[in-house]
Design goal:
Blueprint: E1 2-11, E2 14-24, E3 29-33, H1 40-47, E4 54-59, E5 62-63, H2 69-74, E6 77-80, H3 92-98, H4 109-122, H5 124-127, H6 139-151, E7 157-161, H7 169-184, E8 188-193, H8 196-202, E9 205-210, E10 213-219, H9 220-225, H10 227-233
Parallel strand pairs: 3-8, 3-9, 6-7, 7-8
Antiparallel strand pairs: 1-2, 1-4, 4-5, 9-10
Helix pairs in contact: 3-6, 6-7
Bound molecules: adenosine-5'-diphosphate and magnesium ion.
Amino acid sequence: MLEVRDLKVHYGGIAAVKGISFEVRAGEMVCLIGANGAGKTTTLKAIARMVPAQGELLYRAASIVHRPCHELIGEGLALVPEGRGVFARLSVQENLEMGAYCRAGVASKGEMSADLERIYGLLPRLAERRKQLAGTLSGGEQQMLAIGRSLMSHPKLLLLDEPSMGLAPLMVQKVFEVIQSVAAQGVTLLLVEQNAQLALSMCSRGYVMESGLITLAASSSSLLENPAVRTAYLGE
Ligand SMILES: Nc1ncnc2c1ncn2[C@@H]1O[C@H](COP(=O)(O)OP(=O)(O)O)[C@@H](O)[C@H]1O
Ligand SMILES: [Mg+2]
């Protein structure tokens, strides 16, 4: 589904990503963990073609390194950004409708309402609040809205940036239940998390990122047992 080879991203003179390689196979749920500032968000933005990068990016076996961001959304590559980025002054439903904007082909009214109902079925909290302004939702509801909005583009590969950030534990659990049901529908997921325990408990494999480099790649179970990971990321 995704192959990243020797990816490098610079912001002016600062190297944020220093040559990383990894892959995500179709149907997998893989996480990228690491401390604040490690380069995780930059990596996701580079894959979604939102920041210029060097190296090779293959999405469904085709090079995307020179493709514009909006075309990739139409081909099923979607990013749920850090901090959610919902449109505060639009209603829940209008936010969801915006998610269909860049998808392939024009959505008919019938397709649009079928998609909305499917998403409200998955996210009943949003169904109850469809006319509410997004800016007045709780943090967890906004995260669910950001995920729901991304589903409107019919993603095949979903990049999720820190979906647990700033949420109370109970809400984190609810958001991750939603993520799990998205995965169960066959969407391939690349999950970025500072909450390593949670991410590794959800994913089959993980990569550890430190100062712009991938320093470990292993199954979640072996990362959870790794003493260095336990000390650095699991608070032991
Ligand atoms: N827009 C930007 N301009 C300059 N430097 C940036 C920008 N965004 C991120 N950085 C820097 O790139 C590095 C990686 O940041 P980021 O990818 O956000 O890390 P993470 O998501 O792992 O916390 C940090 O040193 C950060 O300060
Ligand atoms: Mg980040």
